[in-house]
Specification:
Blueprint (H helix, E strand, L loop, with lengths): L1 H28 L3 H26 L6 H29 L6 H33 L2 H55 L7
Length: 196
């Protein structure tokens, strides 16, 4: 049950970032097809490539899936906290930018955290499958709670968080959730490895 709660938090934070980064790009460069396309594209690419990397890591006998998951969550949180200042700095260097001049820097800035996000599912899946022996149940439940976390983030953002906290506060909340997920998985499962 703890593993599912942890992955709920991971999904919550990931969707928060997507919403925050989309709004940040709107603020810096205006509402445009380019900013929407960049965020959606980098999320899809990062999640896909990160999933491949996480799958490869999860098959290595030298890598603890829970430790790798915790490191991924810490990296996501660190990148998240740094993202708005970095966005503003890049925007100050490119005030008249449009099209690909906006897209490429934003794409590069978001690729690392989205790669880490993509790696989380295969890492936790390998651990959960090794513990339960059930591929379908473990993978299905993890995917379900992660999606539920994303839906909860959408509701929280729309109903209260963005209005009450603003972009900076919402970003701090998302990073705190990442750090909490990392600490929780280390406290609960560290040292048990994939063979537990």
């Amino acid at each position: 049950m703890q593993l599912y709660c942890i992955f709920f938090l991971s999904g919550f934070a990931a969707l928060f970032y997507q919403l925050i980064w989309q709004r940040a790009l709107f603020t810096l460069y205006g509402t445009s097809a380019e900013s929407v396309t960049v965020v959606v594209t980098v999320f899809m690419l990062g999640l896909g490539l990160g999933s491949l990397a996480g799958g490869a890591l999860s098959r290595s006998p030298r890598v603890s899936p829970t430790l790798a998951f915790a490191l991924a969550e810490l990296l996501i949180g660190a990148c998240g906290l740094a993202s708005l200042p970095v966005f503003r700095w890049v925007a100050s260097l490119t005030p008249a930018a449009a099209g690909m001049e906006v897209g490429l820097p934003a794409f590069a800035l978001l690729l690392l955290p989205t790669l880490c996000m993509g790696a989380t599912l295969p890492l936790l899946s390998s651990f959960a499958i090794a513990r339960s022996g059930s591929v379908g149940r473990s993978l299905g439940m993890l995917y379900f709670v992660n999606t539920l976390g994303s839906a909860a983030a959408c509701a929280a953002a729309a109903l209260a968080a963005f209005g009450a906290l603003g972009q900076g506060g919402a970003l701090q909340l998302a990073a705190t959730v990442n750090f909490a997920a990392a600490a929780w998985v280390l406290a609960a499962f560290r040292g048990r490895g994939a063979s537990a």
